[in-house]
């Protein structure tokens, strides 16, 4: 069953992996699609298959989201196309090695793709959706946003950024009828691993999720109205405790007085 009133979903990083599965699932739900990535031929093959299977209208937009002009073009499309009702801010990369193994161009490239691009696109979509009083933004973060010691700090920092932006945007946009969800996958079997010189099979099999399971669970979290969806986390009370502790600190974080433990005691 499809719903022709769902509008168009713009998905970044839609040529493979998590983005390509979002494309499959959202087309089957009844969304028309705009697929964004660099590999136009790969997206066109996906678009042709999904159009044949679902009858949806699917457009391919070739863009390198680390390029300012390309990013601007996609942001302008989000700002101006009233048919777009959903942004899936998914394109992302991981480094080959970590912060101490890479030079500035590689670090800057990761920040451009994982931080600047989703921020600019969420801003463009958020303003447009807010004006229309409806729409949704799905931001792909990572469980590594919560576990900086477990991986490269640049990547986990970029995903913590995405999580924070999502939480902030949700608090501003949800009262105006716009849904915002941060998805935090754990290790998921996609090309991101080989693209960054890693072997996903080096993890125990029980740590690696299938990409279809990941996207189906994430969309279920979206349907349930979740702001943060962590598909691998069986005990959701663990995240709730963590988040409640964070929120409980809020009233204590800005004070005129220095905390007693930082007051120097001068010996007489
Ligand atoms: N797989 C995992 O274990 C996890 C993934 N994530 C996050 O999920 C998201 C999707 O990851 P995943 O599907 O695994 O990654 P993949 O490497 O499988 O796919 C990445 C997608 O992003 C696109 N992309 C890469 N660079 C650019 C660029 N410069 N401009 C535009 N598009 C680009 C790629 O297409 P093309 O090459 O054609 O441009 C591709 O479609 C990412 O944000 C990632 O950080 C989070 C946690 C775990
Ligand atoms: N994609 C992974 C790292 O490369 C992750 O976020 O777990």
Automatic annotation (TrEMBL):
It catalyses: L-allo-threonine + NADP(+) = aminoacetone + CO2 + NADPH; 3-hydroxypropanoate + NADP(+) = 3-oxopropanoate + NADPH + H(+). Its EC number is 1.1.1.298, 1.1.1.381. The keyword Protein biosynthesis does not apply. It comes from the Bacteria. Keywords: Oxidoreductase. It holds the Pfam family adh_short. One of its GO terms (molecular function) is 3-hydroxypropionate dehydrogenase (NADP+) activity. PROSITE patterns: ADH_SHORT. Belongs to the short-chain dehydrogenases/reductases (SDR) family. NADP-dependent dehydrogenase with broad substrate specificity acting on 3-hydroxy acids. Catalyzes the NADP-dependent oxidation of L-allo-threonine to L-2-amino-3-keto-butyrate, which is spontaneously decarboxylated into aminoacetone. Also acts on D-threonine, L-serine, D-serine, D-3-hydroxyisobutyrate, L-3-hydroxyisobutyrate, D-glycerate and L-glycerate. Able to catalyze the reduction of the malonic semialdehyde to 3-hydroxypropionic acid. This is NADP-dependent 3-hydroxy acid dehydrogenase YdfG.
